[in-house]
Structures are given as structure tokens and as C-alpha cells.
Amino acid sequence: MNNLIENISLQSQPGSKLKYTAKDFQSDQEVRWCPGCGDYSILAQAQRIMPDIGIPKHQIVFVSGIGCSSRFPYYMDTYGFHGIHGRATAIASGVKLAQPDLSVWVVTGDGDGMSIGGNHLIHLLRRNIDVNVLLFNNQIYGLTKGQYSPTSEKGKITKSTPYGSLDYPFNPASLALGASATFVARTLDRDPKHLQSILKRAHDHKGTSFVEIYQNCNVFNDGAFLQFTEKETKDDSVIYLEHGKPLVFGKEKDKGIRLNGFSPEVVSLKDGKVSIHDLLVHNETDTTLSFILADMTYHSHMPRPLGVFLSIERPTYESEMQRQIEFAKEKRGEGNMAKLLNSGETWTIQ
Amino acid sequence: MEEKKLRNLDEATIRFAGDSGDGMQLAGTQFTNTTAILGNDLSTLPDYPAEIRAPQGTTSGVSGFQIHFGSTEINTPGDSCDMLVAMNAAALKVNLPSLIKGGSIIANTDGFNDKNLKLAGYSSNPLKDESLSTYQVFEVDITKLTITSLQEMNLSSKLVDRSKNFFALGMMYWLYDRPLEPTLKWLAEKFADKPDIREANIRVLKAGWNYGETTELFKVRYAVAPARLAPGKYRNITGNQATAWGLMAAAQKAKIDLFLGSYPITPASDILHELSIYKNFRVKTFQAEDEIAGITSAIGASFAGALGATTTSGPGFSLKTEALGLAVMVELPLVVVNVQRGGPSTGLPTKTEQADLLQALYGRNGEAPIPVIAAATPSDCFNAIYESVRIAIKYMTPVICLTDGYLGNGSEPWFIPDYEKLPDISPHFRTDPEGFFPYERDAVTLARPWAIPGTPGLEHRIGGLEKQNISGNINYEPENHELMVHLRSEKVARIANDIPPAEVEGDQQGDVLVVGWGSTYGAIKTAVQRHRAKGHRVSLLHLRYLNPMQKNIGEIISRFKTILVPELNLGQLIKIIRANYLVPAVGLNKVQGAPFLAEEIELKIDELIKGH
């Protein structure tokens, strides 16, 4: 095992040339999502960026829970663990803590991650274990055939809520920020380039990366994100967060976000009253700002923010754990079981 | 001054009892450690309320610690005690039924004021009326004597009050001829940074000892010679500590990291505490957000090549159920320790019971066989957990190791094992990609390969969905499912080929065979020995392996006329015995949150013998 781990770390030395293509990450298993499902695009983008992240595929682990998205690991030719409902984040925590050199990814959904697995998710985020969480948000339960989910809009008519759902939805980005996540981003299935860039950012971030991916379920919740993906509407409905850049959006780039006190407001750049210099400038390292931006999510008069809300540094759990292990070894020496068994108060019977 | 008489005893049982804030557990533990160092055999029973500070002075707040020690073999904490230290009226009321007729009571008179008497429900002071006339009562104002001995130190009254357990301890050390040094040494280490507390406790301890020496109250003190245990080196150990050390020893022998995912729960938390200290022993402890994360993180760690373990008690064990099924399906090594307590639900958190056996054996959806192993004594927890790890690694399976509150908190002298001679349990990680299939099995054990992330060429996927035989791909075909159900079952069944045959204690055939499992061992053994001393044909078969059972159990059972199965539940092992071996076994069942008294089993055997 020791030798094994040494070999692994040798191969992950920076600069080692890995000549993978996306195809190398396709497993021999037939993909079985519904035709037209947004999951196909996410799978394709993940396979596309894998050659670029510079990790040998035997050092990559995909862990999932239960749900449509959770079939993901079967389709990746890496190590994979299809767990039980809601527990992917906890399983992944164990994988990463046992072997901190692995690149560990969690694939979960709005039901798996926000409902049954909500508890494990928030604890993973606060611990900041270096795991990348991809939460496919389709705002519906797909695998159980169409009940409302914790991210479904209030009043949603489904099989289990014929008179409309009563629950107010989670906003995953706000939830993650509230759990002290160090990396929070949002992207969507229909924008492959943006999705790829966010996946790479998630990989590069040291600590838990939380990526909410809007994903269309064309069978049970078709068109949930149409406004953000269709040519006619998307430019006026979406705002891309870019670090160090003012928050401008609109087909004509003629609208922006300005702060009024602590509240963001949409302003027009057209009439000359407001200039681009008056606009809010995105800063990924500003925790307070990240809360404000994430909170824009369910305000219908606001464009939907996509991109990286927050990316800050905080020591990872596994590095702190390793530090304690080193400290214990320094203080007590390498563990010697025979010595321990015979330590303290003992007596001998002749 | 009158010379005090020293009387030699073969064995003695004493009980410290007081309010849950009186430090009785500490006094008991110190007395135990000193007694162990003196070379007595011993067995202890800590008995405390679930509340941290239950209502002061009431019977529900009483905390007790019983120790049975002797120069002879000691198997139980004692059916009754000879000496009771009662720090207040409630402690007397609760514990008097455990005191033998004619036994001694040391009563802290300060704890018998009107308020205390009322709280305990006494209408008159038992120290003043005739109700204790059949006992020998020593009235000592422990509180006042403690205050006096600390007068010069100018301490807070709270600190003074909290030192009185050391006065009681000092007195008991004098009464039973024990040295103060081990406790003095402990105090020096424990309170190295708190000189006030250290000094106060030392003074009070010595004052208690001196009080015994000088007061006219005690005419006799007792000596209990060292036990004639097998020659070798011993230490005192609790069950939870033995479990923790067993896990550490196993990980060291297997040369892999131990990953403990655990959520605090009484009475299992001490295993987590203990392992958290030893990070220099390849131990990674992870206090998870809940019981489910405890076990699933451990499964994740096992997938990545560590020895995954999780420790819990009843309600927590219930929460782990679904993940246990996952561990069966993905066939990874995993050790689950259930320190059983009184149930159902939250039940009796600090009391012992054996009512999770059927849950351990069967409590999962689907056909989900898991090996189940039980520890018999506190120190035996080390062997039981080590064996659990051996089986988990060799057979790529979760293993449930059952202990209980009595074993976990109880302690006894332990013949220190020779670490070098513990069996080699190193795993064989798969490294060769040539012809690798995740669910191809070893021809003998039926174990699948342990192929861990980080190994080039072995990338594969596992999960909770049914696996295709050999390839491990998802598969829903009826014949394949049936095959896999049988393979998983057969794999666990084959462990029976790899464990030593069961051994009968006593004659190989006879009238009554007492079949036990778990922590009832000591009481059963004592009861059986008493009958054998009377010439009765009674033997003992104590089971370590609950699943699979040893192959010779049926044959052994067939050699006895009557089978008695004593259990701290309503009859769980007995169902297995009856079903597997088709014998009309008789049960003896107790669910009072307390271990069996040897006498209870002895009487039941009596009844069976008379029936012949």
C-alpha cells in the first residue's frame, strides 16, 4: 500500500505528460439517460476537460448517490462509486481522507444533494475537503418519475402535489455559501464552453468546490431553464459573473447591476445617467458580495447570475488532518503497538 | 491505640455510590487500577444515569461503581456487595438491595440531612432508626472531614465539595490495605497544570487513609492476596479501550490506515475518544455529522484502501442499516462495532442489554448476510475486534462486532498479548490489470479483489445496484441476481471453514449445556462452576461466532439432555439455536438494563436439573 501510494504521487508530479483524449474517459457502458436529457451534455463536457486537468485517470474517482445524475460514474472510465441516496458526499469524504492525492468528484442532483443528502452536503462544505461537487439541478425528481424537488418553484403541480407544492425552494448557491463553502459556481448544460471552464475551475480549487449545473429534464420538467438558454431571451435573463469586471448584461450590453445600499438593482446604461463605472464590479474573493449575488437568484426582475460566485482559500480538512498526524508522530514517535500494549501501569505474575 | 486486626479474604465486592456529580466513577476507577496493579483478579460494573447531572440528591441521580476482586478467579462484578459506600441517602436507598445481609455500610452523614432524606423518600433517617440493624453501619461525616482537611488551602467551596470522593477512596484504600501511590501518581499527571486541584485531592486522599488508621470506628481491615493468574504481564483494561486497541493493532498488522468514521453515542464514544489520541498509529478519526456519514465515510475509506470502521450503539446502529446493505453489495472490508444498550429507540443509554442480535443478523433489506462476532469479556473485545478485521479483509465483507455497555465500560486484568504473535492479516491489493474483473472471486474464500483507486489499469465502478457476476456491471437479469444472492451468502457461510471449532467448558456431554454469547460469559461461567462443584453434569458453550456459527455446534448440542440459553433479551440466540439445530432449548431472559447475577443462572440450572 505504501509503495502503491508512492507510485501514485510520482505519476502526479506536475509536468508529467498525459496524452488523454475525451474518449479515454468513456467507459464501455451504454449511457442510459432519456434521449435529450441535459445529462448527456454534462457528461460530454466532463469527459472533454479531463485530459486537460493533468491527472492520470487511475487517480480520479467519481462518487454519486441515487437519481438520474448519479448514474454518471458508470459512464466515466475512472474509478467510480455509485453510493446510496444522499450519501455520496459522505462516501467521497472517506475516499479523499483515506487517499488525499486522489482527485475526487461527487455527482449529485437537487433531490440527492439538497433533500435526503442535505446534511452531508453542508458538512462537506464547511469542512472544505478537496472534493468537487457537481449538483445537477433540474428542479424535479426524475428517477421516481416526476415529483417536486427541494428546488422546484413554489406552487409546482406534480404527481405528489396536484394542488401545487407548498415548500419554498432552496437556492443551492446561497445554501452552499451559508455552509461556508470556499468555491461556489453556477453553470448550465446548454452552454458547453462555460460549463467546461467552470469544471476546470472547480478542479483547480483547493477545497470543496460546489458547482450548481442547471440541467434540463426534458421528460418531467422540460424547459425549466429555457429563459436562460434560448437565444431570444438569454441575454436579457442571464448575467455572467467575471472576476474584476463590471456586471453588464443584455443583448446590447446596455444593462448593468448597481448596488443600492446592500441591494443590487438593474440599471440602464442607455440614457447616460449611469455609466459602466457606477456598476458593481465582481470580486470572487469577497464573501459578502457572493451572498448578495447569490440572493439575486429567485428575484424575477433580476438576471440570473451564472459563473463563479466565490473562490477563496481556506486550509482543507485533509491537510489539517495530515498536520495533526505529523504533530502526533513528532510528539509521540511512530506508533509502536507492542510498546503501547506494555505501557502505563502493568504488573507481572511470576 | 488499639491494634487493628487484618483479616484475609479470598474475594471482596465493594460499591461506591453517590450523586452523579460526586465522582463515584472516578473513585471506582482509581480503586480498580490500584487493585489491578496489586495483582488481584477483578471485574467491574459502572452503573450511572444517562443525565450528566441528574436531580441532585434523588434516587434517579445515583451513580454507582461496583468492583469484585480477589485472590481467586473473578468472572463477574459480583451478585451483591460486601461493602457499600453511600455518599447520601438516595445512594443508600438505591443500593441497599445489592448489599449482602450483614454487609458493611460507610455512610456520609452529611448526605443524610433532612433535605437528603426527603429527596430520597425516607420518612425517617435509616441511620437513626432500626432499619439497618442487620448491617454494620459506619457513620462518617465525609463532607466535614474533607472541609477540615482543606481548611488551610483557601479553596472555593465547590472545589472542596468535589474532593470528597477522594476521602472515601482513601478510607477504602486503608480498609482494603491498598497503597496510595498509584492514585498519587495519577493525580500528579492528571493535574500537572492545576496545582490547586492536585494538592487538594492528595490531601483529602491521605486524610481519608489516615482517618481509617486513627479512628476507633474501624476495628478490622482486610487483605486480599494477589490472584494466582497465569504467569505473565498484565494490565487493566476496559472493553471500549480494548476495542480501540484491537482496531489499532489490526491496522498495524495489516499495514493499512485505520479510518474511523463515527458519531458520538453512549456508551460507544470512548472508542472514538481513545482512537483520536493515537494518530501516530496510522489512525484517522473522523467525527462525522451523523451515524450515516460515519459508516458511509468508512465505506468510502475502505474503497480507497483503508480499514474502514465505525462504532456506535443501538439507535445509531439502526441508522447505519441501509449503508450496511451497501457494504454487502460492494463487498468491501468494513468493521461495525455495536456497543449494545437498552432499547428500543433511545431506551436506556447507559445500561446494558443484548437485544440487537437479531438486528445484527437480519436487520437489512434483501438477502444481506453479514458475519457477526461477539466479545465475551472486557479484555476479549480486543480479540473479537481483531478477528472481525481479519474476516473483513480476507472475505471482503462488512463484519459486525457486538459488545455492550457492560463490556465497554467494565474492566478486568488483561494478559497482555504478544503483538508479534498476532496473526498476519495483510490484505492483498490487486495491482495486475491483466484479466482484472471487479467481481471475479477467489476460489476458496469467494472474496472479490480489493482494487483501490490509484492503481493504474484497474479503473472500475462499484455501487449498490445488483452486479453482474465477474464483470461487476449493472445487471438486472433474474438468473444473475439469484446467482449473486447465493454467492454472497455462500461467501459468508464459508467463513465457518476458517474459524476454530467451538469448545465446551466442562464435560463433553451431560445433563445441561448452557449456551451463551457476549457479556453473559462471566455470570454463566460462575453459575456452571458452582454446579460442577456440586457434582452436577453441567457444561458451558459460549459462542464467539454468531454468523456463521462454528460447524460443530449442532453436534455438541446433541450430546446434552437440556439446552439452556440465558440472554439479556427476550430470547434471540435461542431462536437461532432452535431453528438451526431443532432442539427444544430453554431460555432464561432478563431485560433490566443490568447483567445477569450468577445466582439467577444458577437457580435456573437447578430447576432444570430437578426436572430430570
Structure description:
The complex is a heterodimer of chains A (about 350) and B (about 600). In chain A, the strands form two sheets. Chain A has an eight-stranded mixed β-sheet with strand order 2-1-3-4-6-5-11-7, sandwiched between helices. In chain A, strands 8-9-10 form a three-stranded antiparallel β-sheet. Residues about 1-15 of chain A have low confidence and may be disordered. Chain A has a domain at about 1-10 and about 20-235: Thiamin diphosphate (ThDP)-binding fold, Pyr/PP domains (Rossmann fold), CATH 3.40.50.970. The longest helix of chain A has 16 residues, at about 315-330. By secondary structure, chain A is of the alpha/beta class. In chain A, about 30% of the residues lie in helices and about 20% in strands. Chain B folds into three domains: about 5-225, Pyruvate-ferredoxin oxidoreductase, PFOR, domain III (Pyruvate-ferredoxin Oxidoreductase, domain 3); about 235-420, Thiamin diphosphate (ThDP)-binding fold, Pyr/PP domains (Rossmann fold, 3-Layer(aba) Sandwich), CATH 3.40.50; about 510-610, Rossmann fold, CATH 3.40.50. In chain B, helix 1 (about 25-35) packs parallel to helix 6 and helix 6 (about 165-175) crosses helix 8 (about 195-215).
